[in-house]
């Protein structure tokens, strides 16, 4: 089954062609990082305009690289949410236009399900499994007993982990995007500041990163006021160690209550080298899987894979009332 994936939830314009939820024939990603860097973050209006400019190009390149025609596509999978509404609408409307023109069935996909299913490209998902979702907008632990069965065990009560990384990076004067910069410098530093680990020992599986972020910002401000030497690498290492300790401990706690066959890490922060090392060093009883680095950040291959498994599970597609939604629940009953 040939699935064409479309992803425009934030600032990457991406189209991919994937066979049977496994074999990636093409995965074109047009990044806007250099454009938004001047603003220190994504500007929604600019992101939308850039999607309009690039969407036709990525469609053509994805089909060309996959060496197929649009007539050979069996299903179009497009991110319907959550994300920036202007950006989402570009991808959804482009996908619906293509669907109508070539009479290809279309299916809407939750962005986070895409991140989870990115793991299936190079690993076979083994159920039941735990998914640790870590990105700029989400931090959750999800139990999956089978394909497309998502049970949320815990989530952040305030900031997502990726958001905290970016805000700390901005305070430290690091260039956008800040998360990868903190990760890179953390390797060179030491945990000399011993930041707090909020909610790490709480009995539930929820997270909180707002207090940690504020603690880092306040300490940095106070050290400047006192003219104390600031070692950026130590700030990064101390912050990263606090964050990864929390993420690993919560995952270990969930494993004690929910025996599974596999742990997968999903989302943009899954590319973090410090998190990867600590997860692999700390969890030995079950396999821990990460997507390839190129499939951690937003891309259409993960949407195509998720679309394949959603169709296989429910055998339903969407009609042309499909629309973008900035807020969209992954979980039943919400």
Describe the structure.
This protein has helices at residues 33-36, 44-66, 85-102, 111-117, 161-171, 178-186, 210-225, 232-257, 273-282, 300-314, and strands at residues 2-7, 12-19, 23-31, 75-81, 106-110, 129-134, 139-144, 151-155, 262-266, 288-289. With 334 residues, the chain is an alpha/beta fold. It has two domains: 2-116 and 296-314, ATPase, nucleotide binding domain (Nucleotidyltransferase, domain 5), CATH 3.30.420; 127-290, ATPase, nucleotide binding domain (Nucleotidyltransferase, domain 5), CATH 3.30.420. The chain has a five-stranded mixed β-sheet, with helices on both faces. A hairpin with a 4-residue loop joins strand 6 and strand 7. The protein is globular, with a radius of gyration of 20 Å. It starts with a strand and ends in a 20-residue tail after the last helix. The mean pLDDT is 96.
Q: Which assembly state applies to the chains in this document?
A: single chain
Order of helices and strands: EEEHHEHEHEEEHHHHEHEH
Question: What best-fitting shape do the alpha-carbon axes yield?
Answer: globular
Percentage of residues in strands: 15-25%
User: Might you state the CATH topology name of the largest domain?
Assistant: Nucleotidyltransferase, domain 5
* Whole-number count of domains: 2
**Mean pLDDT figure:** 96
Structural class: alpha/beta
Distance between the termini: 31 Å
Which residues sit in consecutive blocks of at least 5 with pLDDT less than 50? none
For the record, what is the CATH homologous superfamily label of the largest domain?
Answer: ATPase, nucleotide binding domain
In the CATH hierarchy, the architecture of the largest domain is 2-Layer Sandwich
Please estimate the helix content: 40-55%
Rg for CA atoms: 20 Å
Count of separate DSSP helical elements: 10
* Largest beta-sheet details: 5 strands, mixed
